[in-house]
Amino acid sequence: MTMVRQIKTATAIKCALPDSGAGRNPDVAELEQRAERQRVMGELAADVVHDINNLLAAVEAISRLLDMNVEDDNLSALVRRLSRSAHTGRGMTRRLLDFVHDDGNGMAEVDLAEIVENEVELLDHIVSRQISLKIETEESRTRVFADPVRVRSALFNLIANARDSIAGAGEIAVRQYVVPSVGSEPMCQVLTVADSGCGMDKDTLKKVGQRYFTTKGKGKGSGLGLASVIELANDCGGRVEIESTEDVGTRVRLILPCV
User: Which domain of life is it from (predicted)?
Assistant: First the structure.
């Protein structure tokens, strides 16, 4: 049986915190500690990514110098391949740093298709070799009003969730398309990520999207990925729809109104 859930508002954890640590709810304290650990890890990750970017810049520069002084055609081709790989790696690290340093004020008119197409190479690195990644976009002149950094982050989160739901070989299908206006419903761009993973039962589906809720086990998931996708949809006046069938897979739709 396929379970369907439509989310227009992200589920929030509401609690009253005492002025001091005495008598504090242990669940709330654990959430606070987890959030602080994630903040620190985010800062450390940014430092590591920055250092990796510098190393790749050196590799790219040295490989270009080598190419200028290598006469053997076969060796020159290998050096150019090394240079291109380093350049691609630097592009990936720059995009990761964009996520970390985003100030949340980058709202603009963006095309979901363009964002998906620009991230194909990075998406290929997110999934394993056993997983087939299919990407389909629809050419249109429509735009949505959103922060492009948050949209890319949402795309990566949905792909990562789909990947983690698949044990061994499987398939992930990413599709972007436009839905015309019908009645009071505005024209929308839709980003769909469907997987052939383990799926979810009814009880789990009710909880997805709650901050810190994860099905990945302790230490394997933060429980913030899908919640951030829902928050993006809310901020843009859109919604998230989720369909899931146990042992068959899950389909998530990010629906954003066009401007």
Answer: Bacteria
